[in-house]
Task: structure prediction
Amino acid sequence: MTDSRAQSNVVGVAVLLGLTVVALGAVTASVGSLVETNAAAADANRVASDLAAAVQPVRTTGVRTGSLAFTDGRLDTVERSIRVLDDSGVILERPANALVFEAGAYTTTLLGGAVTLGRGDGGRFVRDPPITADEDVLVVGVPVLDGAVVAGGESERVHLRTRVTHTRRDLGTGTYGVAVETTRPGPWKRFFAAANATLTSRDFDGDGVKSVVARFPGERAGYVVVHRVEVSRRG
Result:
């Protein structure tokens, strides 16, 4: 009887130790995942702030330098387009392109002058796009990125050089819309909805990336200002 009870105690202790080890492993994995998530979020926030400061297509003219810093992630230039439409269809199309930084589940995007931060296809604007609409006038700023920037790895500091020029085009009076090609439509939809635009989506070029199409009601004077940004990575 005594031996049986002793063996049972030993088995019980072994089981408890095993459960403790499993529990500690789960906690360690959970803590590690949380640390990685927090680090990715911090990188995405930092890059959003750096991008907004380094690339200012509307406010500046000429040459400007800036830098982006992150501990782990990847920065790429991707093809995106912005279009302006009237009742007959597309009247202006520019390959605006975008700078996209990815860290874990978090993404920071510079597109059309706007800086977006968040997860998935949602997120929020850190800087709004340079588009102004009122009852009489629509002014569409179209920042166009020329050049490519690619970077990735740990403890990166990417130095950027930008050169900005501006071209203004008078569209006359009409009924206009704006289409922005993006994989993160949420912030754009909210921005255009707040400007009283009617929203649809459309894949204009068949590449699988849809555009948020915003149609503004009524006739108004239309203007487009193309902000051409030559962007390059300095050593």
Residues 2-54 form the longest helix (53 residues). Residues 19-36 have pLDDT under 50 and may be disordered. The helical segments are 2-54, 185-194. The chain is about 25% helix and 50% strand.
